[in-house]
Amino acid sequence: MKKTKMILLEPVLSKTVHSIVRTTLLLLSLTLTAISMPYVLNWSDHYADHWQNGLSEKWMKTFVQMETSSLAGEGPTELNQLYEDFTLAVSDPSRWLITEGILSNDSTVYAQSSHGSAFPEPFESVPPTEWFLNGEEEDALEPVTELQESPAASVIVPNKVLLYFTHSRESFLPYLPDTKDPNKAHHSKVNITQMGPYLKSAFEKRGVGTVSDQTDIVGNLKDQGLDYYAHAYDESRKVVQAVTATTPGLTYLVDVHRDSARRDITALEHEGKVYARVAFVVGGEHAESDKNLALAKLVHNKMNEIIPGISRDVYLKEGAGTNGKFNQDLSVNSLLLELGGVDNTFEEMQLSADLFAEVLSEIVLEAEAVSQP
């Protein structure tokens, strides 16, 4: 009987010991997580501009759900969503070809709602620090399209819009034949700042006085040996404050960027023409961000009324993994415009720039109680 009893007790004891060990290890893991989390958050904040927006928060949420799911008896929802997203991405081979630049899709027809997820959030291509500071710049093709400023019509309201370029060297793969890596699509001459004179002209043709500041903010950072993204908005803040101090009346502050999203996201065919899709980013970490958000939504909606789907969405950025202000606390009429993406051409961006200038000019002139010419 004793021998039979021992046989019955052995699996019970084994399970009990296993349960105690497992619970102890789980509690130890949770304790270490709680202790280390402040350090992780501080590290994340310090390197916030190096994260794809929202990535750190998403992975931390996934990790916590993985740790607690065994206690709750439920599967980690964030992990399930990541798995579903991955499955969706790899199930369509055409997405691989688009990502590699072998196949392009100029006629994507889905539109983004304020609550949907048809388009990913904008994020910046972060150049490798060593390459940015010490790498040799590759040759770039000059755009064929004329981008020079043209004579303006009579300006009805002078000095209302300031255009500036925080990430001034963001360039485009069609003009960088030797570059395949989107994170290296940066150039000192062929870049997003070339859209400044064109946008200025587009506004002034509609009666809105505009200043286009062509400061090479990224060049300034490089000269100082500073990291590309960690200090970019601090550097552009100095530029904006200097220009607005010497030119009163500049209340519409437009920071122009290009997104890192690929061509299947940033190109739209409409009535036989290919446009560069735009997007708007609003920093939610200052007192009057709601006013910036309202303006961005107004521009977004008006552009989509004219060409459905031309504007991807308005994205509110706050919390870990993002800048949170983007210097938009300097004016309630601040906008961060993502004009196209890394695969767009200047011709495509010009078409969208004209529409953006048309819509924002209408808003400015209406606020000034005057009519467009």
Short overview:
Pfam families: SpoIIP. This is Stage II sporulation protein P. The chain is an alpha/beta fold.
Structural class: alpha/beta
The sequence of SSEs as H and E is: HHHHHEHEHHEHEEEHEEH
Our Rg estimate from Cα atoms comes to 25 Å
CATH structural architecture of the largest domain: 3-Layer(aba) Sandwich
Spatial gap, N to C terminus:
104 Å
Organism: Jeotgalibacillus campisalis
Protein name: Stage II sporulation protein P
Pfam families: SpoIIP
Give me some keywords for this one.
single chain; 6-stranded mixed β-sheet; 373 residues; 11 helices; 14% strand; Aminopeptidase; alpha/beta; 8 strands; 2 domains; two-stranded antiparallel sheet
Question: Would you write up a description of this structure?
Answer:
With 373 residues, this protein is of the alpha/beta class. It has two domains: 2-67, no CATH class; 129-367, 3-Layer(aba) Sandwich (Aminopeptidase), CATH 3.40.630. Helices cover 45% and strands 14% of the residues. It is built from eleven helices and eight strands. Helix 6 (195-204) links the parallel strand 1 and strand 2. Helix 6 runs parallel beside helix 11 and helix 7 (217-224) crosses helix 8 (232-246). 35% of the residues are buried. Pfam families: SpoIIP. This is Stage II sporulation protein P.
Topology:
Layout: H1 2-46, H2 55-72, H3 77-90, H4 93-99, H5 129-134, E1 157-164, H6 195-204, E2 208-212, H7 217-224, H8 232-246, E3 252-259, H9 263-266, E4 267-270, E5 273-276, E6 278-283, H10 289-306, E7 311-317, E8 333-341, H11 346-367
Parallel strand pairs: 1-2, 1-3, 3-8, 6-7
Antiparallel strand pairs: 4-5, 6-8
Helix pairs in contact: 6-11, 7-8
